Amino acid sequence: MFDEEGNGTVKTQELERLMNFMGINPTKRELLQMAKDVDKDGKGTFNRESFLGLMALVHESAKDQDAVQRAAFKVFDEEAKGYIEWNTLK
To answer: How far is CA 51 from CA 4, 15, 20, 34, in A?
Structure first.
């Protein structure tokens, strides 16, 4: 589907389409950094191993963002009710 030539590599220009296919929608800046991360040799392609390494980083980043969101929620949920009253946010 993404390995058009059947040689075990995918063109870095297909990275955005591949990420979107997986439900991941990076910004242009993130996408440029991802392309640099997977295309170590600058040939404009990446292989399975590079992509799996990138996915591990994406997963870690998502976990970090989740932790930040939970911490922010706890600031407003002082009584640990599991929800925030609308008036608290005013």
So the answer is: 16, 9, 14, 9
- Give the separation between CA 33 and CA 52, rounded to whole angstroms: 15
- Predicted confidence (pLDDT) per residue in 24-83, tens digit: 888 888 888 888 888 888 888 888 888 888 888 888 877 777 777 888 888 888 888 898
If one counts the domains in the chain, the total is 1
Q: CATH code at 62?
A: 1.10.238
Are 14 and 22 in contact, with CB atoms under 8 Å apart? Answer: no
One-letter amino acid at 74 equals: K
Looking at the domain assignment, is residue 29 inside a domain? yes
